[in-house]
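Troubleshooting log. The previous run stalled partway through. Resubmitting the same two chains, unchanged.
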Amino acid sequence: MIYLTRRATFSASHYYWNPSWSGEKNEQVFGRCANRNGHGHNYTLEVTVAGDVDPVTGFVVDLKWLKDVIEREVLAAWDHRHLNLEAPEFAATASAALIPTTENLAIAAWKRLDPAVKAAGGAHLNRVRVYETPEIFAEFRGEA
Amino acid sequence: MNSNLLIVRKTLITHNEKAYFGRRYTISASHRLHAETLSAEENRATYGKCNNPHGHGHNYVVEVLVGGAVDAETGMVVNMAALDAVVRARVVERFDHANLNLDPLFVNRVPTTENLCRVIFGLLKPALPAGELVRVRVEETENNFFECEGE
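Second attempt completed without errors. Output:
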């Protein structure tokens, strides 16, 4: 089994706000991240797939294919967007909006990527890691 | 909002997937690698430059990985401000701009980065505000790092 990781970057804005809480509680829990005008980050997304090396190509997966999957499934929806307003999983207008924390971004990115990786057969998604800054990251490994 | 709607909303939002939150901290500290049980020659042979008598220093990066269910209300595994407070109080304030050899935890323990990693894991494990400590990684330089998962 070989693990192969591809990195991609995207830039987006967001804020943290739980609509079922008071403004005071949101500010107390989320601090400056609760500023309703939002703020932004340069995110780095790391996608790790695991699988056996193809004896003919020497590949686990074709990196160009993986790059295209990441761009189509994740970057097209999130890059240069306001996550709370434009990303379907986080849009505040949706009845079940999730807060776009780094943890939830990692889970949401996994859910966007997993069907495409599964459909291709062969390698499987092993880990998705999202860096919000070089010092802060969250990862999801598909665990319940 | 009526209660049925509230229940639907809560059901849709709630998910208990396990995720991991990672955070990196920097500490600058000095150390000297020297084992009391070895002779001067053995220390020199084992540790090389790291055995120089007056010690030397590094900018260490401490990476803390916390695992747990994502809280449905906050979207978080652990609140970063709360985690920062614990890591600062227990690790950064203790070791930053300090001589590791003089810390009581290193009296009978050579302050290699392996041991620093284990010591930090032990300091943080019982004190996390939420989630579970999965791994501590300490980078001594950009070319070497050590990881401890509490095994």
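Takeaways: Chain A has a mean pLDDT of 94. The CA atoms of residues 49 and 125 of chain A lie 4 Å apart.
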